[in-house]
């Protein structure tokens, strides 16, 4: 997805340009975000279940 956005940017008006560092940082950000999701998913599931029991 990131690669396709970067390839389309030069076709848009406004002087946009694409760069390999954009692709690398976007991919790294996605990987970090997914890692945080996997790490904190058990915590959020536990909290949501606890809130349901409190109702």
* N-to-C order of helices and strands: HH
Beta-strand proportion = under 5%
Distance between the termini: 41 Å
Q: Indicate the overall shape.
A: elongated
The profile of the biggest β sheet is: none
Using DSSP, what is the number of strands?
Answer: 0
Count of alpha and pi helical runs: 2
Contiguous uncertain segments of 5+ residues? none
What would the average pLDDT be, to the nearest integer? Answer: 88
Helix-strand makeup class? mainly alpha
Q: Helicity range of the residues?
A: over 70%
Rounded to an integer in angstroms, the radius of gyration calculated over CA atoms is: 19 Å
Question: Which helices and strands, and how do they pair?
Answer:
Elements (H helix, E strand, L loop, with lengths): L1 H7 L11 H35 L1
What would you say about this model in short?
With 55 residues, the protein is mainly α.
What do these coordinates show?
The chain is mostly helical. The protein has helices spanning 2-8, 20-54. The chain is built from two helices and no strands.
Considering the chains and any ligands shown, give keywords for the structure.
55 residues; mainly alpha; 2 helices; 76% helix
């Amino acid at each position: 997805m990131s690669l396709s956005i970067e390839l389309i940017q030069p076709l848009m008006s406004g002087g946009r340009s694409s760069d390999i560092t954009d692709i690398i940082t976007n991919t790294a950000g996605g990987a970090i975000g997914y890692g945080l999701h996997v790490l904190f998913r058990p915590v959020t599931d536990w909290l949501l279940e606890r809130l349901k029991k409190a109702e």
